[in-house]
Amino acid sequence: MDYKARLLVMAVALLWGFNFVVIKWGVESIDPAMMTALRFFFTSVPLIFFF
To answer: What is the tens place of the pLDDT at every residue in 11-28?
Structure first.
């Protein structure tokens, strides 16, 4: 693996790991159903630009 690919793999792993921290913060302060709705909303908005 070259240097660029290793950096990309590290970035993905760090973002994925930080996602669990954000979920914990969100569930502590927001209703879990609302948190799920917000997660689906924020993942679907960028997807609209691909279609």
So the answer is: 999 999 998 898 888 888
